[in-house]
């Protein structure tokens, strides 16, 4: 039954269907995804908390390095989670696609990617409001200290900020994972369309060969 379910998921779809059914796939499998990936999400949360604290608590000059580290962390998160989900059978093992296959379906890839980025950005902005508030409070306090004013924030704000960054990072891990559903179905759709394309050309060439043989025979 599980094999038939995977075969049903791996079929030719439009970009809209990949997006719609991809998010449904993520939501319907969320409990299993959570049980499988929570250790990775905790590690990602720690890295995110560190990168959020670097420009706010340590020094503003660390903003660009923090962004670079966060970008690498996101890439590793999606790679490790995808690998773990395939290993646990949540997603089917799929072979690599050739560069020509990706280029032939560039339109679909762009549409799915843009929509996923938009959804991730909207969810991240909504769930990161407490983080932005803590960042603004810490920056304002630092600017006041540099201007000669006394520290206007209690000592526990540092630990409160780190706690907020950790919680926000953990939530953001699962927000980034929402891209896995549409991406998984998109890759499966491309693989299926490439398979159908090869079968079509193989059948066409075979028919042409038979027709040529028949013409030679009649001659």
Give a quick set of tags describing it.
219 residues; mainly alpha
SSE topology sketch:
Blueprint: H1 2-9, H2 15-28, H3 30-58, H4 63-87, H5 99-104, H6 106-127, H7 129-146, H8 156-176, H9 180-218
Main sheet makeup: none
| Overall pLDDT | 80
Shape type: elongated
How far apart the termini lie comes to: 54 Å
User: How many strand segments?
Assistant: 0
Succession of helices and strands: HHHHHHHHH
Show unreliable segments.
Answer: none
| Oligomeric state as shown | single chain
Based on CA atoms alone, the radius of gyration comes out at 25 Å
Per DSSP, what share of the residues sits in E-state strands of 2 or more residues? under 5%
Could you estimate the helical fraction of the residues in percent? over 70%
SS field, number of helical segments? 9
Description of the molecule:
With 219 residues, this protein is an all-alpha fold. It has nine helices and no strands.
